[in-house]
């Protein structure tokens, strides 16, 4: 990220940039930064956007070889192409020696760093990974956004926001906009405001549901399940998220046994270190055998629904009641 800022500051650009990683908000922010810097004064005929896995690499290369229309550069944005995982060889060959007047900005969720295209970008341009931000960074960012709007907030209230929103910065931003409007006439954002305005993500409902089950609070677990149904969440999606949560807890538990710290565990399972810490706390309530059994039972429940042996709503109810039991090792 620092390198992109420096390129913009010096007005010296590489011909290809790759912006990738889980954090969509930051990817889009830096795409816009590059757009403003590279496309300033450009005719719209020199700015092009391609999206999806069905794009034609040949068409893009033909366009890249076309001189800009009464301008200094042609800028091509390519989003979600999947070329950095497979099928990017032709693009890699072209980018090894592209037209000097054409600039590329790729945006991808995932990349294969072993691919020829990724290695070409590293050699000829710049690849920047946008990962999930750590807790302290998110807290400072939230406080900064609110401060610019003349709002103050305590650390405990910021923590409450994160517990509701998760670590996705795009989601956090939307919730902060709601909070700012809700607290229009006040300069202090309180926990009551967060409780009143911020939407709890479905993954947080699942986390709370598993916590309730691990503590033997089956009624609360069922109440949370019924709340999700009332919110029109499909039972099979809830089942998938329960299975995913149990699998994450199982991975977390096994990685901890191997001696990994929270940061390393978070990196391996794809979450922020402070989220990994929450998983570790929750996993402590289960035996490894229970979590393995829970994952198997989730698969069996899905199979029962697909084969018509049981309806979807009842299959999740039975899973909650009979499979995930409390108990510590």
UniProtKB/TrEMBL annotation:
Residues 17-124 form the DNA polymerase III delta N-terminal domain. Keywords: DNA replication, DNA-directed DNA polymerase, Nucleotidyltransferase, Transferase. It is an enzyme of class 2 (transferase). The keyword Protease does not apply. Transmembrane segments: none annotated. It catalyses: DNA(n) + a 2'-deoxyribonucleoside 5'-triphosphate = DNA(n+1) + diphosphate. Residues 204-322 form the DNA polymerase III delta subunit-like C-terminal domain. GO terms for biological process: DNA-templated DNA replication. Its EC number is 2.7.7.7. One of its GO terms (cellular component) is DNA polymerase III complex. GO terms for molecular function: DNA binding; DNA-directed DNA polymerase activity. It comes from the Bacteria. Pfam families: DNA_pol3_delta, DNA_pol3_delta_C. PANTHER family: DNA POLYMERASE III SUBUNIT DELTA. NCBIfam families: holA. This is DNA polymerase III subunit delta. It comes from Acetatifactor muris.
